[in-house]
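Board notes, transcribed. Complex of a protein with calcium ion.
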Amino acid sequence: MTRVLLAEDDPAIAEPLARALGREGYDVEVRDTGQGAIDVASSGVDLVVLDLGLPDIDGLDVCRRIRSDGVTAPVLVLTARADEVDTVVGLDAGADDYVTKPFRLAELLARVRALLRRGGAEAGESSLTEVHGVRLDGDARRAWVGDTELQLTAKEFDLLRVLLREAGSVVTRDELMREVWDTEWWTSTKTLDMHVSWLRRKLGDDATNPRFISTVRGVGFRFERE
Ligand code: CA
């Protein structure tokens, strides 16, 4: 069972979040102090959700401490103030991603799934995916619609892989830019629209009446499960 450590001292956040993570099928351990989080993290967890504003030890120090203890599990940081989005500091401290409060539960859960899948893929899980007649082999970097192999560029392939992985859920433009282009959304997202449109063409999809990739206006894209 996937173990998730939730380090958050505000019960108004910790309780509903722990319930939501539990509903996703994770085994959730909640700690309300930095020291408690460090202790649980080193006992072996698959993912850490870490509030930066813990009462005893600063969250970034908690993150550094668990990294120096040799914990390699992904760390998703929760931060209260947008101007505290010290992405750089957070990543320096060894965090993998962050969400600013207040966050949408669905978005946080999507980030959690993405981080766990990334970890799982490294651990050698199957890289074969099939959704709605579209098949993708992550190791061979090949993709098919039915029996027809698609000729995809590297970015089109990465884009399809992320959309398939999250099939049925919307993937935000922000998340696609980070995962596929390894950059934040403030760089031009026209690139994203162009690639989505090329990918649709190759899939034989129609943007106005999509079978595979739906546009969720102002948010992102969703690969339809059926
Ligand atoms: Ca806090």
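The radius of gyration is 19 Å. Confidence is low (pLDDT under 50) at residues 121-125.
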